[in-house]
């Protein structure tokens, strides 16, 4: 069932219209693009043609025969959905003959539909019964014949139900799965009267290939597929547009609600068809997994305690805020100005993130602020800034629909960014080529109607060697775009890079022993990429979370510049950001060395603009990064931390090290929805607000800034930005705003790339991709058009340096980590939803050969050990992973997967090397003993540690 306010035009807008056509429909003249269907033209003229199989989100199908029309001068009754307009046509959509035909068709549909019983509220509003009422059909003369009634409902899916008794086999659900989602999990099984909708091999939805994106549910015109929340809570009353709080795609939604004031209930989330990022599609998380916002685990009262071994005590907001402020003041008085800092959240809004870094710089008086981007995409910022001139991706998501070659490096879009993955799959089915560079056989390597042209299954930690080998082929086989480089890049840097990658040691043959990828496969991939008219690169954490993460980002930019694949649609270098506002948190000045817009704190002109606005002197030296904060805490020089919406005790590497650092703090203030792993080390807990309880903006991976709207009143009393203001005022630095829009106004005044943004403009345009300024008043979908932001693009020689994390006889396997479709990040949100039916625990993927030699079978408990620590989890024997490599996720604190990852990090940004950890896997017969030992070890005080040198900012 579509959104309550959605206007369906019946068929899609023609994609490649070259002109316009004028026709007359029921006496009304309308001019439409060439290729428009009669049905759509009629809708644009205000005429609603009856329909069932047609919808403007899917290709015209022409099967229901309700949309018949009459065309002057033509015989018969063509279907308006499949008949295109032609100049001068005179069309009738209403006549006695058409009405009789439609009534007869509707009677046939209702012959196998339980029209005799009273419909539910959901059923009564369906297209089928609405159309029946419009035609005046209330029964069927054929209802006494053979029927399919009495079939059991499929209630297996946690979010929707399938009632075959209400199904009219219109195929809309099947087509939605094929065309919109691209999973092809549904089919029409059987022929004639025996035809029925079936999931996969006629399985329950939960056991099938269905990914629960909900496209089929939304497309269903009969309520055969219906959200369980709609059944439980009843019909919705109105909708509010907002933005998803999960991955970096940033899907737009309409939250359909009922009730007023404190009694408002969210009934369902419907993807917004006007949203630029998702165009009305969604995934299982965004559409269905929002129940965490009202989960009983939410802590809704502020709490304090003297030590982390004391019990929590619920207090008033005033007492909690004043206690936190007094502790921070005490610590600074005792240990100095730089002894405290703050962490911003990539799950909070731009406005909330901006205020946290403002509080640190203006109220704390230092630059000790960092964000979770430190442990994911900080190499993206550094690498792209130093090659192209801007610390963000170059393209809009829609750009992929013009790509002839798509290269995905170190990313798993079908799991991590599923809505964008559906767009990739649509383009691939249109004929685009695909290269995958990943240690695992991810979903895009081979799935229905899709197969990668080349899968470069490299060894973890060898990205740079692979990229240099690809570049070697481009340069030595004359595939680079010399004219493009001469016009747009620093020629000297290009010549040095060209000579470097042309060296024999960078050839595919020389690198094969390093990467494990056959040389001929590398050569084929390089030729595919360089020879494509438009080639686009999309990459993820499999690129950045390495000791050479920054180097790999630079090597990707080098390759794109050398082949002329920047500055237009269909090309580009696009990082797939993991969290909903990780791009925004970086834009807002969350790094210790940068103000908003990626401008260094040492720049006196930039710094003065902030000093003038904020009325305080600001520090010119960069502050501490997250790893530096941990080191300083263990050294005794860093004693207080304000953490908004992050759980680094679970998400950061080397959990023992992080836990020891947190235990050394004298005051940790955690502001979050739940008592997470980091809150175990907190002295003050401030209950935060979910995305449903606040106004603000998120900025997604394509630099698209969209509005987040308050749907529920904050359950704990305050939105997160208001809590930060309360704390700042208690510290003696008032920050007074009446609404989040005022914070964005301040951001716009201080940040050139946001200078043209306001809530009003975003509301009017739907969303805006920065930079938005006088030159680009409505935003910039494609970056670097005409010239790079830095002027001339700069090439860098990207020397491959092997990671110091080596396999040994004690630790002979390499562990790499990632995410899964149904869970998100540390799982705090998704673990409190129905998504746990798909993924209730972290598991370890291991190759059949490695499992066999260790006596491990699928489902066995295994011990995972590294030099940093150990944990126990179930094994999943899988051919998706290469021999010598194992893989797991980090969604569940019970597994605590990061207890085994190490402190190795990127040379430039300190981004941890999550993707390469030397480990051993052993069969565990006494799981409880292993877990007890792990708990005891985590409880032990840390011994004297060796301090690492601080990396340059």
How far apart the termini lie comes to 52 Å
The dominant shape is: globular
Structural class: alpha/beta
Figure out the total of helices. Answer: 30
Reported for the largest beta sheet, the result is: 7 strands, mixed
Helical residue percent band: 25-40%
Which regions have little confidence, pLDDT < 50, spanning 5+ residues?
940-953
Rg: 29 Å
Strand content: 15-25%
The number of strands is 36
Q: How is the largest sheet built, in terms of strand order? A: 13-12-27-26-25-14-15
Mean of residue pLDDT values: 95
Structure overview:
This protein has 953 residues and is α/β, with parallel strands linked by helices. 29% of the residues lie in helices and 16% in strands. The protein has 30 helices and 36 strands. It has a seven-stranded mixed β-sheet with strand order 13-12-27-26-25-14-15. Strand 14 (340-344), helix 10 (350-364) and strand 15 form a beta-alpha-beta unit. Helix 14 crosses helix 18 (519-531). The two termini are 52 Å apart.
């Amino acid at each position: 069932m579509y959104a309550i306010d959605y206007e369906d035009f019946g068929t899609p807008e023609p994609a490649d219209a070259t002109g316009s056509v004028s026709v007359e429909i029921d006496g009304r003249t309308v001019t439409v693009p060439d290729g428009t269907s009669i049905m759509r033209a009629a809708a644009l003229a205000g005429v609603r043609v009856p329909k069932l199989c047609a919808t403007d989100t899917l290709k015209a199908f022409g099967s229901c025969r309700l949309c018949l029309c009459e065309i002057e001068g033509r015989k018969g009754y063509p279907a308006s959905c499949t008949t295109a307009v032609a100049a001068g046509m005179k069309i009738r959509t209403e006549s006695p003959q058409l009405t009789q035909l439609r009534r007869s068709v509707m009677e046939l549909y209702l012959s196998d539909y339980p029209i005799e019983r009273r419909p539910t509220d959901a059923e009564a509003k369906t297209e089928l019964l609405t159309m029946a009422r419009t035609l005046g059909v209330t029964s069927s003369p054929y209802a006494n014949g053979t029927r399919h009634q009495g079939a059991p409902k499929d209630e297996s899916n946690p979010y929707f139900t399938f009632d075959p008794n209400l199904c009219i086999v219109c195929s809309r659900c099947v087509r939605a799965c094929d065309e919109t989602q691209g999973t092809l999990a549904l089919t029409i099984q059987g022929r004639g009267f025996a035809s029925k909708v079936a999931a996969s091999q006629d399985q329950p939805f939960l056991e099938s290939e269905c990914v629960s994106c909900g496209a089929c549910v939304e497309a269903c015109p009969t309520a055969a597929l219906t959200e369980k929340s709609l059944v439980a809570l009843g019909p919705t009353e109105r909708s509010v547009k907002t933005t998803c709080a999960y991955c970096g795609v940033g899907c737009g939604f309409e939250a359909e609600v009922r009730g007023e004031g404190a009694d408002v209930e969210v009934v369902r989330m419907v993807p917004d068809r006007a949203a630029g990022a998702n165009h009305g599609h969604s995934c299982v998380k965004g559409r269905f997994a929002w129940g965490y916002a009202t989960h009983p685990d939410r802590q809704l009262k502020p709490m304090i305690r003297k030590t982390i071994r004391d019990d929590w005590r619920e207090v008033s907001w005033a007492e909690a805020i004043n206690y936190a402020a007094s502790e921070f003041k005490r610590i600074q008085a005792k240990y100095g100005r730089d002894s405290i800092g703050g962490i911003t959240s990539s799950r909070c809004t731009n406005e909330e993130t901006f205020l946290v870094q403002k509080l640190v710089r203006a109220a704390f008086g230092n630059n000790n602020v960092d964000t979770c981007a430190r442990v994911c995409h900080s190499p993206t910022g550094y690498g792209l800034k130093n090659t192209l001139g801007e610390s963000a991706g170059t393209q809009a998501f829609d750009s992929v629909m013009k790509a002839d070659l798509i290269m995905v490096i170190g990313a798993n879009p079908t799991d991590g960014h599923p809505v964008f993955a559906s767009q990739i799959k649509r383009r691939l089915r249109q004929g685009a080529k695909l290269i995958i560079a990943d240690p695992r056989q991810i979903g895009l390597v081979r799935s229905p109607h899709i197969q990668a042209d080349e899968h470069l299954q490299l060894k973890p930690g060898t990205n740079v060697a692979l990229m240099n080998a690809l570049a070697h082929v481009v340069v030595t086989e004359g595939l680079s775009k010399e004219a493009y480089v001469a016009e747009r890049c620093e020629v000297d840097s290009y010549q040095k890079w060209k000579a470097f990658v042309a060296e024999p040691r960078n050839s595919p043959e020389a690198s094969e022993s390093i990467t494990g990828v056959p040389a001929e496969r590398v050569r084929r991939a390089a030729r595919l990429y360089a020879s494509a008219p438009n080639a686009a690169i999309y990459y993820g954490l499999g690129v950045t979370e390495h000791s050479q993460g920054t180097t790999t980002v630079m090597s990707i930019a080098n390759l794109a510049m050398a082949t002329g694949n920047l500055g237009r649609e269909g090309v580009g270098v696009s990082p797939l950001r993991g969290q909903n506002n990780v791009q925004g948190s970086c834009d807002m000045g969350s790094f210790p060395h940068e103000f908003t817009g990626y401008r260094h704190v040492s720049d006196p002109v930039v710094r003065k603009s902030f000093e003038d606005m904020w009325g305080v002197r600001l520090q010119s030296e960069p502050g501490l990064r997250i790893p530096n904060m941990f080191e300083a805490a263990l050294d005794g020089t860093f004693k207080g931390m304000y953490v908004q919406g992050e759980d680094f005790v679970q998400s950061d590497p080397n959990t023992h090290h992080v836990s020891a650092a947190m235990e050394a703090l004298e005051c940790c203030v955690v502001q979050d929805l739940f008592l997470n792993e980091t809150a175990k080390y907190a002295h003050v807990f401030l209950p935060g607000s979910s995305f449903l309880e606040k106004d603000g903006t998120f900025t997604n991976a394509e630099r698209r800034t969209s509005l987040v709207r308050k749907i529920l009143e904050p359950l704990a009393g305050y939105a997160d930005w208001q809590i930060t203001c309360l704390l700042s005022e208690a510290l003696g630095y008032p920050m007074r705003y009446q609404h989040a829009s005022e914070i964005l106004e301040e951001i716009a005044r201080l940040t050139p790339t946001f200078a043209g943004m306001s809530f009003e403009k975003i509301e009017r345009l739907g969303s805006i991709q920065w930079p938005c300024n006088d030159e680009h008043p409505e935003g910039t979908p494609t970056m670097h058009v005409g010239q790079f932001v830095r002027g001339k693009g700069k090439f860098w020689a990207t020397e491959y340096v092997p990671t110091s994390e080596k396999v040994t006889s004690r630790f002979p396997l390499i562990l790499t980590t990632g995410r899964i479709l149904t869970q998100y990040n540390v799982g705090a949100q998704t673990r409190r939803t129905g998504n746990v039916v798909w993924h209730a625990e972290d598991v370890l993927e291991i190759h059949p050969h490695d499992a066999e030699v260790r006596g491990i079978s699928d489902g066995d408990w295994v011990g995972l050990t590294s030099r940093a620590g150990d944990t126990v989890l179930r094994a999943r024997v899988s051919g998706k992973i290469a021999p010598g490599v194992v893989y797991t996720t980090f969604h569940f604190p019970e597994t605590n997967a990061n207890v085994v990852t190490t402190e190795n990090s990127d040379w430039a940004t300190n981004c941890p090397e999550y993707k390469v950890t030397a480990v051993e896997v052993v069969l565990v017969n006494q799981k409880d003993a292993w877990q007890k030992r792990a708990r005891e070890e985590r409880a032990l005080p840390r011994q004297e540690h060796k301090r690492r040198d601080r990396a340059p900012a």
